[in-house]
Amino acid sequence: MTTTELIAIAGTASQRRGDRQQIALSEVEIHLDSDEAVAKCLRALDSSDARLAATPQMYDWVTVWKETSEDRPGATVRFGVAWYDRDFYAEKRDVYLGEHHLRMFAGFADSNPQVIVKHYELAA
């Protein structure tokens, strides 16, 4: 049996989004193989989300979900990234492949988390 849990609505809330117009969306999926890794990942997202809520940026997180399955440890964490500036998006869309993010992913646990990212540009 699989269970999906809403963790945060983050920048999905209209009062947080304000008058910013979304130009792209990235869907992120991180497969983690231990509960400890999932907890570390969610803490990292929560910490980053607090910073983004305090000072709006050219991107924001959108809805964070956690999907668990009773037949395996860990979980899949899914969230989106809303982008609000085309040049910033073009420059940063693959930042998750950089050394900083790779170290952060590796720090979630002793395992090698699988990270899948899909990008969608919205019509102008």
SSE topology sketch:
Layout: E1 2-10, H1 14-17, E2 24-32, H2 35-54, E3 59-69, E4 72-83, H3 86-92, H4 99-107, E5 114-121
Antiparallel strand pairs: 1-3, 2-4, 2-5, 3-4
Could you write a compact summary of the structure shown?
Helix content is 32%, strand content 40%. It has 124 residues and is an alpha+beta fold.
Which range best describes the helical content: under 10%, 10-25%, 25-40%, 40-55%, 55-70% or over 70%? 25-40%
Give the DSSP E fraction (strand runs of 2 or more residues).
Answer: 35-45%
Average residue-wise pLDDT: 90
**Compute the gyration radius: what is it?**
15 Å
Q: Helical element count?
A: 4
The count of DSSP E runs of length 2 or more, i.e. the number of strands, is: 5
Largest sheet: 5 strands, antiparallel
The low-pLDDT segments are none
- Biggest sheet strand order reads 1-3-4-2-5
Detailed description of the structure:
Strands 1-3-4-2-5 form a five-stranded antiparallel sheet. The mean pLDDT is 90. By secondary structure, it is an alpha+beta fold. The protein is built from four helices and five strands; from the N terminus they run βαβαββααβ. It has helices spanning 14-17, 35-54, 86-92, 99-107, and strands spanning 2-10, 24-32, 59-69, 72-83, 114-121.
Properties at a glance:
124 residues; alpha+beta; 5-stranded antiparallel sheet; 4 helices; 32% helix
